[in-house]
Amino acid sequence: MEAYFQNMVEELRQMRRDLHKIPELGLKEYKTSAYIREKLEGFGITELGTWLETGVVAVIRGKGKGQAVAFRADMDALPVTEQTGCDFTSEHVGCMHACGHDGHVTVLLGFAKYLQEHKDELENDVVLIFQPAEEGPGGAQLLVDAGLFEKHPVRCIIGCHIFPQVPQGKVACRKGAMMARNGEVDVHIYGESAHGAQPQLGHDAVLAAGAVITGLHTILSRNVSPLDSGVLTFGAIHGGEACNIIAKEVKLEGTMRAFSDEAYETMTKRVQEAAAGIAAGYGCKGEAVFRHMYRVVDNDPKLVELLQEVAGDNYEETPPYMLAEDFSLYLQKVPGMFFFLGSGNAEKGYTHSLHSAQFQFDEEILALGVETYAKLLKKLAE
Whole domain around residue 90: which residue ranges? Predict the structure, then answer.
């Protein structure tokens, strides 16, 4: 790591710990937003915009020789009670930065300082997006809908995520699909109640629901190409009133994910058709209600090649993950790249997964994040 970035470690550590103490849920990140603005203004950055009340967009002007480049950090936390035992633990009971967003904000703040101190060397304008509500309801789409790219046209957008399944000191990425398109589905089964001793007088929604679950799981093996990937999981079932009453209604709650739009849309169509058809076979009515969420994180191959160049031996190719990320919604508008900033370190005990109440990481990785952004920007200017 170059000396400039190594010398940032302690400042980055302090910023991250400041942010870790004040986690806030999506669209309520008021303290976080104020902290970001205070730091940016302290660095001498004056072109700041407020979006969605808590989002902050900063612009650092270069020589204007090419279209601007955007970098994004998410800033919201999770409704998790922290159990790390660290001395900078969350001051907001029941809320925690359990997904590393405090680190993402810190990387972008460190990058902002670097940009301001190297303004005379910048070929392009740089747009820094501090985005609220990644965990929900999807702040990226809200920003896009609010006209983010109309006000700030960019040639591409770059982001990263701290990731414990990648070793500390490494960055990981892949060309094309890296994270899944996802959605949620509620399947409602409507039957007719009757006495449990006289089932012939009713239509059993519980029995139909069991058949629907079994049938829906054949969609991936028979309707989606075996060369594609998808997952359909039902994690909750609600229904019935008593052990001796034929249930008149059952609700299944599930998640569905795929690495291609084609597979996802096939799953959506077949879930609706199969739920209705199978339920009808039991004298019931079945219908599916979908909440389509994030799209495939589809990395631009040329940007991934630039990351490989700047990371050198620190680069790893990641397998695709069925996780989802609203960064994908920016990619519906502009080319971009999302990469993992490795945080896994068994020797220091940094192995807990994202969203865990014990999740922690070594803040030295943040300097690598800043350096990677800086080197990518230089490559893009060549």
Answer: 3-178+296-381
Q: CA-CA distance, 54 to 211, in Å (whole number)?
A: 46
Residues 226, 309, single domain; the answer is: no
Residue 137: per-residue pLDDT:
87
Q: How far is CA 147 from the centre of its chain?
A: 21
The per-residue pLDDT for 61 is: 97
Q: Assess whether 262 and 344 both reside in one domain.
A: no
Rounded mean pLDDT of 252-279?
Answer: 98
Q: How far is it, in rounded angstroms, from Cα 342 to Cα 172?
A: 7
Q: 191, 246 in Cβ contact below 8 A?
A: yes
Q: pLDDT by residue (tens digit) across 55-111?
A: 999 999 999 878 999 999 999 999 999 999 999 999 999 999 999 999 999 999 999
Please count the other Cβ atoms lying within 10 Å of the Cβ belonging to residue 378. 15
* Owner of token pair 């159990």: 83
DSSP of 160-196: EEEEEEEETT-EEE-SEEEE-EEEEEEEEEE-B--BT
Peptide bond connecting 137 to the previous residue in cis, omega within 30 degrees of 0: yes
For residue 303, the SS3 value is: helix
Q: Please tell me the distance from the alpha carbon of residue 255 to that of residue 74, in angstroms, as a whole number.
A: 23
Sign of CA dihedral 360, 23, 58, 297: positive
Instruction: Locate 24 and state its tokens.
Output: 């806030």
Question: What residues act catalytically?
Answer: 74, 135
Residue list, annotated binding site for Mn(2+): 99, 101, 135, 161, 355
Binding residues: 99, 101, 135, 161, 355
| Domain termination residue (choose one: 292, 313, 345) | 292
Neighbours of 223 (CB within 10 A): 16
Clarify whether residues 235 and 304 are in a common domain: no
For the chain, how many helices (H) and strands (E)? 11, 14
The three-state secondary structure class of 233 is: strand
Residue 220: strand, helix, or coil: helix
